[in-house]
Amino acid sequence: MVIVGAGHGGSTLAALLRQAGFDGPVVMIGSEPHLPYHRPPLSKKFGDPGFQQPIRPPDFYADNDIEVRTGASVTALDRSSQTVRLSTGERLGYAHLVLATGSSPRRLAVRGSDAAGVLTLRTIEDAAALGRSLEARGTLAIIGGGYVGMEVAAVARSHDVPVTVVERENRILARVASPDLSQRLTDYHRARGTDIRVDATVTEVRQQGGWATAVDLADGSTIAADTVLVGIGAIPDDALAHQAGLACDGGVLVDWCGRTSDPSVFAIGDVARRPINDTGDLVRLESIPNVTDQAKQVVAALTGRPQPEPEVPWFWSDQFDIKLKIAGLVRPGARIVPRPGKKPGSFALYHLGADETVHAVEAANAPSDFIAGKKFIAQRTPVSPGALGDPSVSLHEVTAATPVGS
Predict the structure, then answer these.
(1) Superfamily holding 2-104+235-303
(2) Check: CATH 3.50.50.60 for 107-232?
(3) How is domain 321-397 classified at the architecture level of CATH?
(4) What is the DSSP-derived secondary structure letter of residue 394?
(5) 319 contacts 345 by C-beta, under 8 angstroms
(6) Are 295 and 308 spatial neighbours (Cβ–Cβ below 8 Å)?
(7) Binning pLDDT at 50, 70 and 90, where does residue 403 land?
(8) Which residues contact 44 (CB under 8 A, 6 or more apart)?
(9) Fold identical between 2-104+235-303 and 107-232?
(10) Full-prediction pTM beyond 0.90?
(11) How are beta strands 265-267 and 97-99 bridged, if at all?
């Protein structure tokens, strides 16, 4: 077993293989010099000393006979001979190969984007550089109002760093959150000093002496910035799959088991586009729950065990003292039912389809709503919108009818 990628997906897959009784050789190859580590703290806790968090203790891999090659990458995949070539020149044979290569930050394509102080955030080194830059140089401009950008903004503002977020869409989190949630978070950030500019396009990063000093916008305005963080999305690291002739389209295409167009090659995590519902729609999801779920599916396929029921997609984000948990996929056109939470300022936004089943839930400091919403989605349970929006009605009493499909 060769696993290409030593992130959360590769580490989880290797551990689950051993738990399932797989006793063949397992080799995990990672281009970074580190053993697998958690990436969420990079944006949520980059200002704290403890942002470097290994996924498993260093001796776990040796104790479980998992060979980890750090600081190495796979440069070629030959499916006919079932071998991979490493950057060291070595060749490894495989019976099964798993691509867990993840994704890379999308680059800002404007003049000056190569200046010192223009950063992205994907690795331990990136997080450390961001922390050092903010400590030494005072103001921060964040290009992109997605979850990573808003998490970094919250951490920076908590350290009294002046922050401006520049988003080209008409709201933050435009691709991943409902307009209601976007507005609530915008208000929350602005009340804490974050300057948020929407409908704004960056035209140039100004620099002096090779260092970023400001960001120019298409409307003629200029934002002073000693540090510029680019958070405009990620692209799948699927070059190896393309080179090998595997089916790709915005990521490596896989089936319910994580299997690619080659039966001996699998793909999991950010690099993969997987089916997520009964329609077979293929979606590329960037979350730890997603890659963990896919790792379980691959292990079942490889060991002949029954396939586990696919988990409802879910995500989380920490911003200031708000813990967001989102289950399901937010799509346009849903009817949104707000439900006040049990604590001041807490709430949940339930997304209903035409059949009054829950398709998604966005919960802020409302864990019981997240748990209930995730269950409603999995069971396709119709609900009463009126009861759902009434916090005096228990979540156990909001269901309206027999589950769809019964």
Answers:
(1) FAD/NAD(P)-binding domain (3.50.50.60)
(2) yes
(3) 2-Layer Sandwich (3.30)
(4) -
(5) no
(6) no
(7) very low
(8) 151, 155, 318
(9) yes
(10) yes
(11) parallel
